[in-house]
Amino acid sequence: MYPKSLQNLIDEFARLPSIGPKTAERFVFYLLKKSGGDLIRLSNAILRLKDDIKLCSKCFNYDETDPCSICSDTKRDSKTICLVAKNQDIMAIEKTNLYKGVYHVLGGYINPLENILPDNIRLRELIEKIKREKPTEIILALNPDTEGESTSSFVIRLLKQFDGLKITRLGRGLPIGADLEYADEITLENAISNRKEI
């Protein structure tokens, strides 16, 4: 048994996604070797997270401003909306320096097995945005796995109500089962360049 303060921190790290007890334990013992200044900088960065980061009211991206730097950039094509599931997917696409439109973050995938239904993601907000901003194209940039495909199918049916709205999806430069967040820039460039109308 570790001392209570050590065990508490191990338990907190273990609550993070993809972090098991052994990795959490390594984090804690790594931090014990760091200087007090390093630990203060780390704790301040964590504490400032909620104060400094805002959720963009237009696209639901995280940024230090609302609207975010992408939505407020007048050089961006506001008539093209790239639909992503997670905030991390935006950064993956932005690294390509190829896409110049705006985004809409759904906040997840439809997954009835985990009780995540269409009302649990930002589809209502997407429909309101389309009615309000009248975009010409929606790009579906969802992972090419089971959840991504089922969410894409639902979104396509939902968007067919809008006459003249072009619906495209990323080209198949991404393999089935891939995660956008971990895709390399060249693969994403090819996927964006070779997107297909649905």
Descriptive report:
The chain has 2 domains: 4-52, Helicase, Ruva Protein, domain 3 (Orthogonal Bundle); 62-197, Dna Topoisomerase Vi A Subunit, Chain: A, domain 2. Strand 5 (137-140), helix 6 (146-159) and strand 6 form a beta-alpha-beta unit. It has helices spanning 4-14, 21-32, 36-52, 87-94, 123-133, 146-159, 185-193, and strands spanning 54-55, 62-63, 77-84, 101-105, 137-140, 166-169, 196-197. The strands form 2 sheets. A 5-stranded mixed beta sheet has the order 4-3-5-6-7. By secondary structure, it is of the alpha/beta class. It has 7 helices and 7 strands, in the order αααβββαβαβαβαβ. Helix 1 (4-14) packs across helix 2.
